[in-house]
Amino acid sequence: MLAPYAVPLLICTAFALPVFKNEKLIKAIAILAIFLSLSFVLSSSIEVFNSGTKVFAVSGFKAPFGIVMVLDKFSSTVASLILFLSLMIAAFSSKLVKERVKEFYTLLLLGIVGSLGIVITGDIFNMFVFTEIMNIATYALIGFTAKKEGLEASFKYLIIGSVSAVLMLLAISLLYSHVGTLNMADIISRIDTNDIYLKTIFIMLILSFCVKIAVFPFYVWKPDVISGSLEPVAAFFIGVMTTTTVYVIIRIFYTILGIYYSTWFSIIAIVTMIVGSFLALLQKDIKRILAYGSISQLGYIFLAFSTGLAFQGMYHLVNNAIIEVLLFLSIGTMLMHKKMMEKISMYAFLLGALSLIGIPPLSAFFSKFFIITGLLEKNLFIYAIISGLISIVTLLYYMKIYFMLKQGEKKIYWPIIILIIAVLLLSFVPVWLQIFKGVEVDLLARNEYVSEVLRP
Amino acid sequence: MMHIFAISLIIIGLYGVIFKDNIIKKVIGLSILANGTNILLIIIGYRSGGIPPIATLSNLADFLTSAVDPLPQALVLTSIVIDVSVTAFALVLCYRIYKNFKTLDIKKISNLKG
Which among A126, A165, A328, A402 counts the fewest CB atoms within 10 Å? Predict the structure, then answer.
């Protein structure tokens, strides 16, 4: 299994980059490293889908005592997704970032390694360390332009991120004092999920991640951060970081606690969805509309997962991440051409927007359709009606952005083309349904997770 | 007793982060907050009358009954390193903000709204 080697590969490349002087060489090396780690993760994902969960003990210490990297279907899917998106973002940035290239790619690689580590680790303190690596890299990336908006956004996110990190560390230390282990599989085998004290600890842990991805009461800072940062960074923030954090929350709910239906979390999800989309309508700046729109889409994902619709939620998670990145990168071409967009990225934007709105042959229609029919099957009519209505609001604000765009000279960027192809490929439902149903089976099998990881 | 000390440090830190307007004071609050958590972690590993967790042939019986748990200390070490780097980065950011805005007041810095 090659996937765990992607972590040291990316870290070494990140710290080796400043040695080189030629900017083209730096870009090429960074993109090559991300491509290599993507191929490592993809090859291990194929292994996982063929022969079940794989466990890698770091430096040979077995599960309850050492740090383990666990690849089951869920984590390998998410890891492949985030590395694919990172590759696109890095390739696109090579056109956009003209100055301080070394610093940009070093920080980007650190951010990627943080999110990859969070996804594949099986140890909860190790997860904290990777979260902090990811956070520090993103603080610096957000303030990368060193202009006024960037610095302000960076400072705001630094405060939010650090407080949530402290909350997470607090929760982890209380968990350790209560359970006496940090390995996730070992925690599952030792806890009684009805214990009130333990529930409080996990609520703290989930809260710390909810702050970080702007779920309902904590959403205020996110549009500031998005509008203050460069477009590739915004794409990284929403496409990669948010996906990673959603992964952690789902992991805690499904695998550690074994909660598949949570009323209070589904209410939070619905409120997030409504608030995000209506605030998006009120905005005037393109990036702020997109930021609120992403908050609204997060509501859909959490609604699906919190009502037990795992494969539907997974489908929407993948769709949403790819489309959000496509939207931000196509908006990003405006930066390069003095507020003008070339035709291809106009069409790319339109394709992404139409898909997220839910126009039939496109990918996000199917995921939304599955979510709504799943809700109807569970007799949650109110939720189904609200999520249907919010789709219409989505139509309004994406069309608003589309009319704000202006057409300019012709230039084609291959990352955008690849993302368009990815969105179109995601529309072939049956193949993906098979994969995501496999993920669902893996997510619901807690006991198998424990026995695989703790196998002597 | 030590728990109360750690928790009061955490509360003081949170107060500083949320209610102070000066960004340097916010960073100081952040650092107090992080150190409060670290102290809480250390207390979890504390054991009165404990011995260092090093097993030799002569103290094997003592080791089994009264060795302290070494893991929280390792965790705190990691967490301190992280705190230092976050604080360093935050201070650099404050310096940059001061150069750009000529002020350290968060209310005058906040322009992004909508």
Answer: A402
Confidence of residue A410 (pLDDT cuts 50, 70, 90): low
Q: Which residue of A has its CA nearest to B35?
A: A166
Contacts of A146 in chain B (CB under 8 A): 96, 100
Contacts of A194 (CB under 8 A, 6+ apart): none
Instruction: Judge whether A253 lies within some domain.
Output: no
Q: Do B14 and A284 touch (CB under 8 A)?
A: no
A278 touches chain B (CB under 8 A): no
A400-421: average pLDDT: 79
Residue A316 included in any domain: yes
Distance between CA atoms of A18 and A105, rounded to whole angstroms? 9
Residue A37 lies in a domain: no
- What pLDDT, in 10s, does the model give residues A273-329? 999 998 988 888 888 899 999 999 999 999 999 998 888 899 999 999 999 999 998
In chain A, how many domains are there? 1
Residue for token pair 């072939």: A428
Q: Is B51 helix (H, G, I), strand (E, B) or coil?
A: strand
Cα A66 to chain centroid distance, Å, stands at 27
* CA B65 – CA A401 distance, rounded (Å): 68
pLDDT tens digits along A168-188: 999 999 999 888 888 988 998
Q: Which domains are present in chain B? A: 2-109 (1.10.287.3510)
Domain assignment of residue A290, given as a range:
262-446
In a domain, A64, yes or no: no
Residue B11 touches chain A, beta carbons under 8 Å: no
Of B14, B23, B44, the CB nearest to A176: B44
ipTM of the complex: 0.92
Q: How confident is the model at residue A339 (pLDDT cuts 50, 70, 90)?
A: low
Tell me the pTM: 0.93
